[in-house]
Amino acid sequence: MSSEESRKNILVDDSVAENITRVEELAYELKIREVMERNVRTLDSELKMQSAADLFRQQRISGAPVTKNGELIGILSIEDVIRCLVANDMDAPVTRYMTSKVRTIMATDPVVEALKFFVNTGVGRLPVLDEKGNMEGIITKGDLTSGLLFALQRSIQEEELKTYRASHLFEDITSNRTSLILRYVIQPRDFTHGGTASSNIKRALLRMGASPQIARRCGIAAYEAEMNLIIHTTNGGNMRVEIEPHKIALDVFDYGPGIPDIESAMKPGYSTATDSIRELGFGAGMGLVNIARCVDSMKLESVVGKGTRLKMTILLESETVGEGYAGKKEVS
Amino acid sequence: MTIMTLDQIINSLGLTVLTDLKDFKSLTPSYGYTSDLLSCVMSGAKNQGVWVTLQAHNNIVAVAALLELAAVIITEGAMPDETTVAKANEQGITLLSTEKASFYIAGKLWEMGLRDV
Questions:
Q1: For the domain B6-112, what is the CATH superfamily, name and number?
Q2: A266 Cβ partners below 8 Å, 6+ apart?
Q3: What are the pLDDT tens digits along chain A (332 aa)?
Q4: What contacts A116, CB < 8 A, 6 or more positions away?
Q5: How far apart are the C-alpha atoms of A72 and B96, rounded to whole Å?
Q6: Contacts of B47 in chain A (CB under 8 A)
């Protein structure tokens, strides 16, 4: 490859880069044994060059290992045959033209080792040895390419199958009432992980086949509730998400300090956040308002000194627009 | 409505890309939103929009990721720390930086034609 071409090849977009990364990963994961050719045609050391040339032509192969009493002693390639033809020496034994310093590779090595070797040396094939040093197979560039492509396709299929299985979970399982429960423990003042639980909830929903709008609404509601636990609670709290075929129920609870004035807390712009928390951009007094906008119904209960419990529901079938609080005033 | 790419926005406003380079020419944000209050952003910013803020702490990444924003423009030279940039890369969020104030950036974006708010 010219330097011009290699420069051009550096410019790849994200999707290509993603595939390249996957191939690279596979090159490290896959073992030589999984992609090598096991059915190796070997040449006996007594064989004449003419017979080797005939064999290459008939079998459409471009090289083969040479063995003596079953032991690997060299490798003969089509280039060696050409050299021999030019020298008009076809009656010579293969041992005269073969390469006797044979590079080999272990069956347990990752595919990337063979890849590196092929790229660096320009050699076309490598005999593969087992743990005891016996020849187990042979590997060529062609084997590598087809092996990697096959593995890539298999991994894509596995990924598709995983998503399919997740999104059909409820169809495949029969019970009187099936649900999936996700639980998260949130630590107080843990701003570093703020939003992690909500991101995971959103990802799980998308994986389960929820529509992007539903996942987004649920993500926003979960985020606001999660941040409330981080900002306001004494000892953090818990989030519990129950996913059912027709609805998602979020249950967020903590053990203090409790909200003294729920009615004010529900008002847009009302906040008890400290200045240092406001500096981070929190405490806009919009958290519960945002939640109400995203869920179909919500219920906020709190006892000062005991704790707070916020229950939210998002309906899946009707693809509703939310406005749980504003529309229904279902707050106790 | 003028269709502009994130690449054009970055170049015209002279923004510094803090996260991994992406194919910015393929991203065409059509919305903008300016606020430093995360809950307001949660309620106001739209999918694939550009968010202008002077907040630079790591929670902006969570917000941007949940809302699937095209990019966050951090103004007045505020700098996110390494962890925040790493988190943004992990979540595929583009963080951009400028010395200019939010008002100036919003004005320029408006001038460029980013008006569908």
A1: HprK N-terminal domain-like (3.40.1390.20)
A2: A288, A289, A292, A300, A325, A331
A3: 444 444 444 555 555 556 666 777 788 888 899 999 988 889 999 999 999 999 999 988 888 999 998 888 999 999 999 999 999 999 999 999 999 888 899 999 988 888 888 888 878 889 999 888 888 999 998 888 888 888 888 888 887 887 777 778 788 788 888 899 999 999 999 998 999 999 999 999 988 888 888 999 999 999 999 999 999 999 999 999 999 988 999 999 999 899 999 999 998 888 888 888 888 888 888 899 999 999 999 999 999 999 999 999 999 875 544 444 433 334 43
A4: none
A5: 60
A6: 216
At B73, list the tokens: 């423009």
CATH number of A179-328: 3.30.565.10
Neighbours of A118 (CB within 10 A): 17
Alpha helices in chain A (DSSP H): 3-8, 14-29, 32-35, 49-59, 78-86, 94-97, 111-121, 141-167, 169-172, 196-207, 212-232, 262-265, 275-279, 287-294, 324-328
Which CATH number among 3.30.70.920, 3.10.580.10, 3.30.420.40, 3.30.830.10 corresponds to the domain A12-149?
A: 3.10.580.10
In the structure encoding, which two tokens stand for residue A77, read together? 């390639």
Chain B contacts in chain A segment 209-238 (CB below 8 A): 216, 219-220, 223-224, 227
Domain parsing of chain A, residue ranges = 12-149, 179-328
Which residue from B22, B37, B59 is facing A284, i.e. has the nearest CB? B37
How, if at all, do strands A307-315 and B32-34 pair?
unpaired
- Report the half-sphere exposure of A2 (CA within 13 A, side-chain side): 3
Distance CA A301, CA A263 (A): 11
For residues A95, A98, A100, A103, the Cα torsion angle rounded to the nearest 10 degrees is: -150
Strand A135-140 to strand A125-129: parallel, antiparallel, or no bridges (unpaired)? antiparallel
Would the CB atoms of A13 and B26 count as touching at under 8 Å?
A: yes
| CB atoms B58 and A280 under 8 Å | no
Q: Where are the domains of chain B?
A: 6-112
ipTM value of the model?
0.74
